[in-house]
Design brief:
There is one protein chain. The protein is built from three helices and no strands. The protein is mainly α and 85 residues long. Helices cover 64% and strands 0% of the residues.
């Protein structure tokens, strides 16, 4: 009791799942391009991770105020900023 639409969908699905022999040639340059794309993807991922590394550490760290430590270790920029003990 399947409708015609179901039969057509089944026929389309079977056609898409069928494999046909491919008459294609992949030269050595194709492998080189694929390898280059893989390396570029890895390097781009590492560069992005490096750019965001400090923000990720601050997100998962237990410190509440990351700028508090930066102010304690700041060097005086001029002789007027220097405080005598």
């Amino acid at each position: 009791m399947l409708s015609r639409t179901h039969h057509k969908l089944g026929l389309v699905a079977l056609t898409l799942m069928a494999s046909f022999p491919a008459q294609a040639y992949l030269d050595p340059g194709t492998g080189s391009v694929i390898l280059q794309a893989i390396i570029a993807t890895v390097v781009a991922g590492l560069a992005t991770m490096r750019l965001w590394w400090d923000k990720l550490l601050n997100l998962f760290s237990s410190r509440k105020d990351p700028s508090a430590d930066d102010n304690d270790n700041a060097q005086p920029t001029s002789k007027h900023d220097h405080k005598e003990p």
